[in-house]
Amino acid sequence: MMSDLELRIRRLEDRAALDDLNVRYFLACDNDDYAGIGDIFSREAIFATSGKVAATGRDTIVEFIRVSRSHMGLTVHTPHYGLYTFIDDDHVQGLVGVHLELVLGEETLFGAMRYQDEYRRTEDGWRVASRNMRTIHIAPWSQVGQSLLSDTPVRWPGVQPLPSDYPRQR
After folding, report:
1. Are 68 and 59 in contact, with CB atoms under 8 Å apart?
2. How far apart, in whole angstroms, are the C-alpha atoms of residue 97 and residue 20?
3. Which domains, and CATH codes, for the chain?
4. pTM here?
5. Residue pLDDT, tens place only, 90-145
6. CB burial string 9-28: b at 16+ within 10 A, e below
7. CA-CA distances (angstroms) from residue 10 to 16, 31, 86, 118?
């Protein structure tokens, strides 16, 4: 049995490993490193966007991301925080906040996302078991000022504006 001090140190090490895992994911995405992306996920992981399952299983997730990124130019994912809740020694729920800049078609977009995650400790270390990418806002740079003022701040090119996955509660 671990002492309180050993458990506290392990939790700190686990939090650092989870932060590193997320940074590796964002860098792998920005660098089109699909092997690196695959290494982030558990074999039976689930990837969702705005609550809708987009892919199940590591290989399918990598292919989903590869196809999505085939329409993009340069991307910059900038993580700001990771909030981790330990369920037990091998299972964690997380919320990761990022800003995103990306080129889609002929437009540069700016946005903010939150990743609602579940992590599992595997024989290879921590891996994402479930990732749900939720959009706070995203719009072409020329529309960001107005999109943030509206009830529909999610403005992907060619798609009707949508409400945020995190609308402000008044």
Report:
1. no
2. 14
3. 4-147 (3.10.450.50)
4. 0.93
5. 999 999 999 999 999 899 999 999 999 999 999 999 999 999 999 999 999 999 99
6. eeeeebbeebbebbeebbeb
7. 10, 31, 12, 18
